[in-house]
Amino acid sequence: MPLTTIDKKAALIVVDLQKGVLNLPATHPVGQVVARSAELARAFRGREFPVVLVNVVGGAPGRTDASRAAQATGQSRPTPPPQWADLADELDPQPGDHRITKNTWGAFHDTPLHAHLQELGVTQVFLTGVATSIGVESTARSAHEHGYHVVLVTDAMTDRDAYAHQNSVERIFPRLGETATTEEVIAMLKENV
């Protein structure tokens, strides 16, 4: 469903646009995803809407095929290089931005994100970032379950897998909320001043 309105209390959530993640392969140019997210962040700040910048520093402890394969070869989870979790410089983090550091895919699980948004009276969240089918989708699912109006800015996200990205955008996101492009969101932000 296309974007219909911007609530009086909207927030932008930028998921995992951090230096280490941005070096991984992606199906869409990561530089464009970062640039569009930065443009949205400036527009949200200009409207005095909250901007939430999310980074990931770990992983959930549950067993997966990948963790079993690593154990079978005697490998452990590698230590990330310095600055791996640092946000992309282009996002130009501001003192008023809220930062969330997570250890799982979604930005709501085991973090203060929901409490922070509730304290601000936020009713609508706009999501950008990586990976579309992992961090962004998990955060969108939780936002939907918490009762937020969810908007997924589909040209400001990417994934390592083209099919996974397409599946999220075409099949999952329409069930979680509205979808829009960066240009559509910016235009509506300007209209509703």
TrEMBL record:
InterPro entries for the chain: Isochorismatase-like_dom, Isochorismatase-like_hydrls, Isochorismatase-like_sf
Molecular-function annotations in GO: hydrolase activity
Chain residue ranges for the region called Disordered: 64-83
Keywords (A to Z) from UniProt: Hydrolase
Ranges of residues in domain Isochorismatase-like: 10-184
Protein name: Hydrolase
Lineage of source species: Bacteria, Bacillati, Chloroflexota, Ktedonobacteria, Ktedonobacterales
